[in-house]
Design brief:
Helix content: 40-55%
CATH architecture of the largest domain: 3-Layer(aba) Sandwich
Strand order of the largest sheet: 8-7-11-9-10
Number of strands: 11
Structural class: alpha/beta
CATH topology of the largest domain: Rossmann fold
Order of helices and strands: EEHHHHEHHEHEHEHHEEHEEHEHHHHHH
Largest sheet: 5 strands, mixed
Bound molecules: iron/sulfur cluster
Shape: globular
Number of domains: 3
Oligomer: single chain
Number of helices: 18
Length: 439
């Protein structure tokens, strides 16, 4: 296992990305050469409940955004009743700043498929679906090729590794709606309906795809499973923090020298991620702000780069680990402009099912546009504050509404002087500095 040491003193461990870059890894032959599918064979010889218990004991938490305990989620599946039950894989990676699932698929599609098949057996499902973002053309083709190889090798089929337990995986391509990352909207879309979140309960484990018990997991979550079953939960718990075990992939983008996807041990600080792994800011610039978990996570000022990458520390800092998309802004970024761009995204992607999100998002966009145009006032700041509060805390059916509210709330909290400057004095010091620097 590759190991590097950062200034925070923790070693850098590569669990998921250990073999990335190895010749032929994307092919069945190349993957099997490195021990691929041995773990599936081992899992098929185990009791399904033992697999669920092992994943529970590992402390693995979902890497898609919500961070729910994976093994506990697997345990929610009711006992088999003879009817169909599904594993649905969320590969609809659309959160701004997040690209790590794509990175995993493009490097090691078979690792993803192996994790899916282990999960399917653990929850006694015979059929998995991968719902993949429509724009992810290469990852889609790579997974299709890998599934074709598995069919040919009869690892998918009626008797994988001689075990009388039929397994199959089907692919479904999304059509470009961000809301399909929300698990129940994804299920609606998979069923061929308009992608709008469902009211819960019932939860997907009880009534999911086609009203049957369904396990929904993210790509990175399932790609981690083969490592856990191969090495054991006890080994996995040696990494990370007490409540956030293991490593995870962070996609770092924005105003840094080396944007990219990095595997980190959970619990390292963002100073390590941003200043060391991603190379820090460009010459003459300073980091100003960062969104630690994709655009839906509340923005934090650079002074909070000491916060660690575990969910608890991020929650204490009033943000979240989210989908692992770390977006970085330097001092050339105007936070009012940034807020406007993010808000436009959420307003555009609102599915329109509930009023606060449908109306509030657009109202917030118009208000920030007015402030940016130099036509705002202190009253507009008060209105904006009311709108963001009206989007949060259970007033919307799904997290998209909260996210739109958080975009405004966190930017106004941490950068009040910039909003004040635009709305009251109708000027922007960041723009002036940018103009002076380029003159
Ligand atoms: Fe749709 Fe927005 Fe309501 Fe979510 S919060 S269900 S995206 S309208």
């Amino acid at each position: 296992m590759a190991e590097l040491r950062g200034s925070h003193g923790k070693a850098r461990h590569h669990l998921l990305t250990q073999h990335f870059g190895a010749a032929g890894l994307a092919t069945l032959k190349g993957y099997q050469k490195l021990g691929g599918y041995d773990t599936l064979e081992k899992a098929l010889a185990m009791e399904p409940k033992a697999l669920v218990d092992e994943v529970k004991a590992s402390g693995l938490r979902g890497r898609g955004g919500a961070g729910f305990a994976t093994g506990v989620k697997w345990g929610f599946m009711p006992p088999p009743d003879g009817g169909p039950r599904y594993v649905v894989v969320n590969a609809d990676e659309s959160e701004p700043g997040t690209s790590k699932d794509r990175y995993i698929i493009e490097n090691s599609p078979h690792m993803v498929l192996e994790g899916i098949l282990i999960a399917a057996f653990a929850v006694q499902s015979h059929q998995a679906w991968i719902y993949i973002r429509g724009e992810y053309d290469r990852p889609y083709r790579m997974l299709m090729d890998a599934i074709g190889e598995l069919r040919e090798a009869k690892i998918l089929g009626s008797k994988p590794f001689g075990k009388d337990y039929p397994l199959d995986i089907q692919m479904y391509r999304g059509h470009g709606a961000y809301i399909c990352g929300e698990e129940t909207a994804l299920l609606e879309s998979l069923e061929g309906k308009r992608a709008q979140p469902r009211s819960r309960p019932p939860y997907p484990a009880v009534k999911g795809a086609w009203a049957r018990p369904t396990l929904l997991n993210n790509i990175e979550t399932l790609a981690t499973v083969p490592w856990i079953i191969k090495h054991g939960a006890a080994e996995y718990t040696k990494f990370g923090t007490e409540k956030n075990r293991g490593t995870r992939l962070l996609s770092v983008s924005g105003n840094v020298r080396k944007p990219g996807v990095y595997e980190i041990e959970i619990g390292v600080p963002f100073t390590h991620v941003i200043m060391e792994l991603a190379g820090g800011p460009f010459e003459g610039r300073q980091i100003k702000a960062f969104w630690p978990g994709g655009s839906s996570a509340k923005v934090l000022p650079a002074s909070r780069m000491d916060v660690t990458t575990d969910a608890e520390a991020l929650a204490a800092a009033d943000s979240m680990a989210g989908s692992g998309g770390c977006m970085v802004a330097d001092n050339s970024a105007c936070m009012v402009e940034t807020t406007y761009r993010l808000l436009k995204f959420y307003a555009y992607e609102s599915c329109g099912k509930c009023t606060p999100c449908r109306v509030g998002g657009n109202w917030a966009v118009r208000t920030v546009a007015k402030i940016l145009a130099g036509e705002g006032s202190r009253l507009d700041l008060q209105i904006l504050d009311k709108i963001q509060a009206g989007l949060q805390d259970g007033r919307c059916l799904c997290g998209l509404g909260d996210s739109a509210g958080w975009v405004v709330q966190s930017a106004m909290n941490h950068f009040p002087e910039e909003f004040e400057e635009h709305a009251v004095r109708h000027t922007c010091s960041v723009k002036r500095e940018r103009a002076a620097a380029s003159a």
